[in-house]
Amino acid sequence: MLINVIDNNSKSDRQRMTESMAELRQIIDEHEKNMLQNISNTEEEQKTKLEDYKRSLTNDLQHLNMQKMSFEMLSLISNHNKLLEVKQGFDNYVNETNEKLKLLPMPTVTEYFLEGIDQLQSLKQNILQCGRYIEVPPYRNPQLEQFINDNRKNRRIDLKLRNLTDSDMKIVADMIRQSTVETFF
To answer: Using the 8-state DSSP alphabet, how is residue 116 labeled?
Structure first.
């Protein structure tokens, strides 16, 4: 009978511990997944902005190089009238590109920080304090035990005014069981 109680208590305690730790692991895993997803989203967003900015500048550079090559080819032909016409268009293009580049906003970098991440070490210590295994020494009440031993010969023992607890009643039951066993053997 006592073995069954011990087995049931152990099984119940194991199950409670397993369920509590599984829930804690699930919370940690979900939080980690969400935080890593936020970091990845921010990283992708920033990379996309920088790639768009780079693409815009690369396109402008290619157009500028094409204008420059056209201007250089015409300068080799030595057609001064055509060169003056193209020069005016080239100057206009350079001025427009310059104004466009001035208005082109620099890509912004989203800054973030991981709030509370430095608190994980102290939280770890708090978690380790939860669900600790502590052996409880057997309950003893020397005064009650002495009283029962002193009155062992009496068929009745008055325990009314003793304010006994459940643990005290276990002591009384154990002592009665012992005296009953001694009487029969």
So the answer is: T
Q: Taking the domains of the chain in order of start, what are their residue ranges?
A: 2-129, 142-184
Which residue, among 101, 62, 61, 66, has the nearest Cα to 86 in the 3D structure? 66
Read off the pTM: 0.58
Over residues 32-52, the pLDDT tens digits come to 999 999 999 999 999 998 998
Q: How far apart are CA 167 and CA 158, in angstroms?
A: 18
The pLDDT score that the predictor gives to residue 161 is 83
Would you say 147 and 161 are in contact if contact means Cβ atoms under 8 Å apart?
Answer: no
Per the listing, tokens 């780079």 go with: 54
Question: What span, in angstroms and rounded, lies between the C-alpha atoms of 15 and 17?
Answer: 5
